[in-house]
Description:
By secondary structure, the protein is of the alpha/beta class. 47% of the residues lie in helices and 10% in strands. The chain is built from 17 helices and nine strands. It has helices at 10-19, 25-30, 51-57, 62-65, 69-83, 96-100, 122-125, 137-150, 162-171, 179-187, 189-213, 230-236, 238-248, 266-271, 285-292, 311-324, 345-359, and strands at residues 88-89, 105-108, 112-115, 155-160, 217-222, 255-259, 276-278, 297-299, 331-332. Strand 2 (105-108) and strand 3 form a beta hairpin. Helix 3 (51-57) runs antiparallel to helix 5 (69-83) and helix 5 (69-83) runs parallel beside helix 8 (137-150). Mean pLDDT is 94; it is low at 1-13.
Amino acid sequence: MSANERPSGHQQTGRTAASATADSAFLRACRREPVSHTPVWFMRQAGRSLPEYHKVREGIAMLDSCTRPDLITEITLQPVRRHHVDAAVYFSDIVVPLKAIGLDLDIKPGVGPVIADPIRTRADLDRLRPLDPDDVKYVTEAVGMLTGELGATPLIGFAGAPFTLASYLVEGGPSRNHEHTKALMYGDPELWAELLDRLADIAATFLKVQIEAGASAVQLFDSWVGALSPADYRARVMPASTKVFDAVAGYGVPRIHYGVGTGELLGLLGEAGADVVGVDWRVPLDEAARRVGPGKALQGNLDPAVLFAPRQAVEAKTDEVLEAARGLEGHIFNLGHGVLPSTDPDALTRLVEYVHTRTAR
């Protein structure tokens, strides 16, 4: 589907479900429209910080839980029930589509995604086949279940961005310096471009499946792209990320772009095709707005570690974020990264209530 093509047929069924959420504060903020209060959701809100999550996941491997619609639905709904956030985020992992096409990988507790045979040669690339929607039928089923439960609360779908997926595949797992990734990027630019292009197609298909089933917005996670210079990002990564955003543009849902340590890349993250740019805690939102430029909403950006401080300190730091966001065209309150596993869930619930009360129009 081209960037300007509108979905039809089966795809409209999902859009009908999503249309019930159209006037939500979250989607209005994404579209830079007036809101009754600043909407709040948290990256990794569904997961390790919640005791109810550990209870339903007991004895079930992470990737297995990502293929069971009943578990996906329950885990996605847990933070909505507990925290009263303004959006749900689909419970999954960025490597799920890679597992679905047959790559030998696992998510190891305390480590993260681990790839049995890293992709570093042209021959290795043959293992990276296209993702077929039938490979992830459980996603369609789970999103359908969720939109039925969520009512007017929007559901955010997501995928891993080409660079971050490539980093895991080339390194074989998480990496501090991305040495193998950069060696491939600089040493064989043609292979690198083909790798990212294939990953862009996989990510785009994964997002389309979620949107067509009823997701109201999507976020592209480029968690490790902050390891790149602006010049390298523009020349060697941005075309692939743009391809993902263009592939889903015709659906008309907000597209969010987020990375860690991307202060020097914020303008480029917006330029790649996002409607909303996620900002980590290192750059104040007013400065981030200057770097991104007009025409984009911003998301963020309380430091997740602040939630371990006393309540008064959390509220003071929250006020700083809200003050920096005062002049923004659109603002979605979030953390500057994901919820840390040992975060007190009550601190998140209090934070949502505080932002809602503090920003009520």
